Task: inverse folding
C-alpha cells in the first residue's frame, strides 16, 4: 500500500563520534518525513529529537549522527506529502512542519512508542503505522493528487483536463480546490508547466526536423502558441535558444 506513495526509506544508525566536517551522506529532492531519535544515557530509553516534514530535501545538518543517534527518513513521491498530512503545499514550501505542532496528541503517542522500541525495526514500524493512519484518513485525496499529476505529466496536452476530472468522479470546482491546495498551482498551470518541460526536452535533444514539429508533438494548437509559451517560461524564443543555448552541442 505504501509503495504507491513512498519512493524509499533511509535508515542511518550512528556507530561513531560525529564529525562536523563530514559532507552530507545523502541528498535528495523528494518530500521527506524525517525522524531522528537519540538514546538517553542515564535511562537507556530512546527519545525523539526531531520529527519533521520537509517539502524538499532535509538540510545537510540533519544527516550528521553520532553513536547514540538513529535517523529514519521516508522519501515520498512528488506531491504526496501535503495531501497525506493535509498540509497546504504553499505552507510546506515556505518552511518545514514540525509534527509536534501538526498533531501534539499523536506526537506524544509516537514519543511513548519510540521510547519503548527495542530495535530500529520497531522504530521504523512506529513511523510506518503513523503514515498508514494518515493514509487511511486521506486516501481519497492522495489518490486524486497522485492520479491527476501522473496523467497530466504523461500527457500534458490541452484536452487532458476534462478526462482527468471525469476519472476522479468529482466536480470541477472540487478538483480545482484540492489540486491547488496540495500541489501549489492550479491544474491548468501545472499542465502548462509539464507541456513546456516536454517540449523543452525535445528541443534540447534536437529530436525534430523543424520547430513546428515540436509544437504539434506536444499538443500546442499551433507554432505561434508554442513560441508564446516557450518565451513565457524560458524568456527567449525557441529559435533564439537553438542559436545561443545549444551552440556547439550535438556536433
Result:
Amino acid at each position: 500500500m505504501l509503495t504507491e506513495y513512498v519512493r524509499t526509506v533511509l535508515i542511518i544508525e550512528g556507530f561513531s563520534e560525529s564529525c562536523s566536517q563530514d559532507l552530507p551522506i545523502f541528498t535528495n529532492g523528494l518530500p521527506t518525513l524525517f525522524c531522528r531519535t537519540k538514546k538517553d544515557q542515564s535511562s537507556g530509553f530512546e527519545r525523539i529529537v526531531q520529527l519533521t516534514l520537509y517539502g524538499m530535501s532535509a538540510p545537510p545538518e540533519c544527516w550528521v549522527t553520532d553513536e547514540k543517534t538513529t535517523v529514519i527518513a521516508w522519501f515520498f513521491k512528488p506531491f504526496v506529502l501535503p495531501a497525506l498530512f493535509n498540509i497546504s503545499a504553499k505552507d510546506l514550501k515556505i518552511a518545514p512542519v514540525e509534527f509536534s505542532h501538526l498533531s501534539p496528541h499523536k506526537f506524544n503517542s509516537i514519543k511513548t512508542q519510540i521510547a519503548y522500541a527495542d530495535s530500529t525495526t520497531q522504530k521504523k514500524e512506529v513511523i510506518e503505522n503513523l503514515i498508514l493512519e494518515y493514509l487511511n484518513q486521506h486516501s481519497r485525496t492522495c489518490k486524486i493528487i497522485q492520479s491527476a499529476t501522473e496523467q497530466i505529466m504523461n500527457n500534458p496536452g490541452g484536452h487532458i483536463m476534462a478526462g482527468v476530472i471525469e476519472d476522479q468522479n468529482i466536480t470541477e470546482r472540487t478538483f480545482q480546490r484540492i489540486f491547488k491546495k496540495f500541489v501549489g498551482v492550479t491544474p491548468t498551470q501545472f499542465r502548462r508547466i509539464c507541456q513546456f518541460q516536454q517540449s523543452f526536452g525535445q528541443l534540447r535533444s534536437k529530436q525534430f526536423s523543424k520547430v513546428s514539429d515540436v509544437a504539434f508533438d506536444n499538443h500546442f494548437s499551433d507554432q505561434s502558441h508554442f513560441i508564446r509559451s516557450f518565451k513565457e517560461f524560458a524568456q527567449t524564443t525557441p529559435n533564439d535558444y537553438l542559436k545561443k543555448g545549444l551552440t556547439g552541442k550535438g556536433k
Summary: Confidence is low (pLDDT under 50) at residues 247-251. The first helix runs from residue 80 to 85. The longest strand covers residues 46-54.
